[in-house]
Amino acid sequence: MTDRSRRQLLQALAGLGAAGLAGCERGGNKTTTFPFENGTREIVPAGTFPEKAEMILQRTRPPLLETPWSVLGNNVFTPNESFFVRWHLADFPTDIDIDTYRVRVFGHVEAPYELSLQQLMEGFQPIDLAAVNQCSGNSRGRVTPRVPGAQWLDGAMSNAMWTGVPLSQLLAQAKPLPGATHVAFRSQERIVSMFPSRDLYEKYVPFAKANDGEVIVAYGMNGAQMPVLNGSPARLIVPGWYSTYWVKMLSEIEVTTHPGPNLWMADAYKVPNTPNGGMKPGETGVEFVPISAMNPRSFFSNLEDGARLPVGQPFEIRGLAFGGEAALTSVDLSLDGGVSWRPTKLGKDWGKYGFRLWSFTYTPQHAGKTTVIARTTAEKGEEQPMVAAWNPGGFMYNAAPRVSILTG
Ligand SMILES: Nc1nc2c(c(=O)[nH]1)N[C@H]1C(S)=C(S)[C@@H](COP(=O)(O)O)O[C@H]1N2
Ligand SMILES: [Mo]
After folding, report:
1. Ligand 1 atom closest to 86 (CA)
2. 3-class DSSP state for residue 264?
3. Residue 179, class by beta-carbon neighbours within 10 Å (0-12 exposed, 13-18 middle, 19+ buried)?
């Protein structure tokens, strides 16, 4: 982002004010049906939610909006207006005062301070970084046996080119003291709650990860301001980790000497301490740990169950993929139900944390039924499983997608 576009962004943000976010008018009755039980969802028209295009409605308050696959599957960078939305607290933010907005950096440090948005944007060296923001429960609707929670299909994820300041620069200015182990992030949104730990959104990240130079406090998204629902004026980006850590409307950065024994760390978003977060349904004595790194995934963009492809005619199978916390090394396709695998052609590499497009030209030779499977492999051989690991939260789903097609 250039200095000029940063200035424009500041001006645009200043003009945003209370952007009429309360007006969530419902209208239309378009629906889509996901391929699982109770899979019918309403599609709400553009403008139903502020700054948002047509979205799949999972819940209104707080808003849970899924990105339609027609948009997600066909773009490396998900347009801001289609970027998925997820808030936890019932009253989502409706009002942002850019002039009084501050981010405090404090805690186990020598030099606590606070920043206005302008200081954040002008006082540090920003970077641009492509990264997929994926909810821990993305694809939960595909989990068997079924588990409670939002029944997302695959659209609780989106990819953007984020612009912001590496957290390491902000931490350095505060001069962390020896013994710092974690950094806590808290949001600006507040609700009235009987439980003090539930009136705000808060997450803890180990100090070494937070300070790695790639975790950023972002204020720009795909070269523009962030939609309010995606965390404007500034949010945390934790590349390669599930978006539960990507605290929106960031207001506090606290260096701590403990991992934060609160609701959002101790109770929610925990997975079995096993390689892919898997366990057997009903298994006891399993150790649970906070969810962290994402695993590799792949998706078909233009091939669905039941598709018919004529024999002898080349068809370009397209899709997208990402490696998780590790870089993607290949996306392979099986045209025989997993017996043999062929490498796909990978699109431009925008950085290891973003989406990568892939394609494969397939010319069916015989009439019949074929099962096509796509599988992403990441660094160190980490590979998508054919069957997803199971856990009671329905987190970390990443089975290799498969479609049955007819040729002839
Ligand atoms: N302030 C705040 N930040 C938050 C949350 C929230 O409820 N409040 N939810 C987290 C979760 S679980 C997800 S999936 C992402 C969703 O980001 P998005 O709405 O930009 O897609 O925000 C994360 N950051
Ligand atoms: Mo999430």
Report:
1. 19
2. helix
3. exposed
The closest residue, in CA terms, to atom 11 on ligand 1 is 244
Substitution site in 203, 246, 253 for ligand 1 pocket (most atoms within 8 Å of beta carbon): 246
pTM over cut 0.85: yes
Integer Cα distance of 115 and 253 in angstroms: 11
Mean pLDDT, consecutive 10-residue stretches, the chain (408 aa), reads 58 45 53 94 95 95 94 97 92 76 97 97 97 98 96 98 98 98 89 59 94 98 95 96 96 94 70 95 94 97 96 98 98 96 98 98 96 97 96 97 96
pLDDT at residue number 224: 96
Long-range contacts of 195-198 (CB under 8 A, 24+ apart): 195/263, 197/262, 197/263, 197/264, 198/89, 198/263
- Cα radius of gyration (the chain): 22
Question: How confident is the model at residue 103, as a pLDDT?
Answer: 97
| Contact predicate 255/302, CB 8 Å | no
> With a 6 A CB cut-off, is 247 part of the ligand 1 pocket?
yes
Residue 390: closest CA among 300, 308, 286, 318: 286
3-class state of residue 125 by DSSP? coil
**Ligand 1 midpoint to CA 333 (Å):** 33
Q: What pLDDT is stored for residue 196 in this prediction?
A: 54
Beta bridge partners of residue 328, listed in sequence order: 378
Q: Which of 292, 38, 275 is nearest to 146 (CA)?
A: 38
Q: What spacing in Å lies between the alpha carbon of 214 and ligand 1's midpoint?
A: 19
> How far, CA to CA in Å, does 316 sit from each of 76, 172, 185, 361?
17, 49, 44, 4
- Letter for the amino acid at 76? V
